[in-house]
Design a protein that fits this description.
Strand 3 and strand 4 form a beta hairpin. This protein has one domain. A four-stranded mixed sheet has the order 1-2-4-3, sandwiched between helices. It contains nine helices and four strands; from the N terminus they run ααβαβββαααααα. The chain is an alpha+beta fold.
């Protein structure tokens, strides 16, 4: 378990470093071609502002869009006490607990830090899983909160937004002027580079973002198993979730990465463009832990 945790943290840091290098590289190209660093700073500030709004209000939006209803201990003592016991074990503040009225088997956690966290379960997953299995799911989601995954993904989204804005600016400036006098001779080449950058940079940024998201899933699997000391519980839960073909009707692409499993059942996508690692691989890693 400790090896898995260390490995996934290291890989996340490496992907983040690559991300920063891509942004710095684009900034260097901007400056080299005579645009200066002003556009880079502007794109970063705009992306920061938009992501800041999401950072402080994104949890409420995610819960509302999923149709999650907050519960108290009296509403569902079984689920509430399970989460409460795990948070005591982990030394975390008690998150708000929500239930989504849906036969789909899924769950997610959101919140910018442990003091502002929420965890949500569908009625489908509560009814279908045994106690140890649901506990594994709850521990996985609480680990996302404890590992500050929302904060990590917020930084990633800022970088993705910055790259997208820079690519758009680069393309527009390539065709509508703005170059310094010493670089005006590069017009044709610059236009081609601008088009290539506009097309490729956002795609590369999205692939890196999804790769980081997948690594955080592996990390939450390992951290959650460390919390329960029973990886088999989560492994069995993931197998049951994978076997279900009921999609979550209230899920959307903006919140899909939050869930423990891809909520869009039946829609096959390439692993490189998936927000989640293959269930089979996650189960294999869990059963290989000791």
């Amino acid at each position: 378990m400790y090896n898995q945790i260390t490995s996934n943290k290291r890989k996340t840091r490496l992907l983040m470093l690559i991300f920063f290098c891509v942004v710095i590289g684009i900034g260097y190209i901007f400056n080299y071609l005579g645009y200066g660093y002003g556009a880079v700073i502007l794109a970063f500030v705009i992306s920061m502002f938009m992501t800041w709004l999401s950072y402080f209000h994104g949890d409420k939006i995610a819960l509302k869009s999923a149709g999650a209803k907050e519960i108290t201990k009296e509403d569902n003592p079984y689920v509430y006490r399970m989460v409460e016991n795990l948070t005591i074990t982990a030394g975390m503040p008690m998150p708000r607990v929500h239930i989504i009225d849906s036969p789909a088997m899924n769950a997610f956690a959101t919140g910018r830090d442990p003091e502002h966290a929420s965890i949500a379960f569908t009625t489908g997953i509560i009814n279908a899983l045994e106690n140890e299995e649901l506990e594994g799911v709850a521990a996985h989601e609480l680990s996302h909160v404890q590992n500050l995954d929302i904060r990590v993904m917020t930084i990633v989204i800022v970088l993705v937004g910055t790259i997208a804005l820079l690519s758009d600016m680069f393309f527009r400036m390539s065709f509508f002027g703005g170059r310094s006098s010493e670089n005006k001779g590069a017009g044709g080449v610059l236009a081609i580079v601008g088009i290539a950058l506009m097309i490729l940079s956002p795609i590369i940024a999205e692939i890196i973002k999804l790769a980081i998201s997948r690594k955080r899933e592996y990390l939450a699997d390992a951290s959650g198993s460390l919390l329960t000391r029973y990886p088999e519980g989560l492994a069995r839960a993931l197998e049951k979730i994978s076997a279900s073909n009921v999609p979550l009707a209230t899920a959307n692409s903006a919140t899909a990465h939050l869930f423990i499993s891809n909520p869009f059942k039946g829609k096959r996508v390439s692993n490189i463009f998936s927000t989640h690692p293959p269930i089979e691989d996650r189960v294999k890693k869990l059963r290989g832990m000791a």
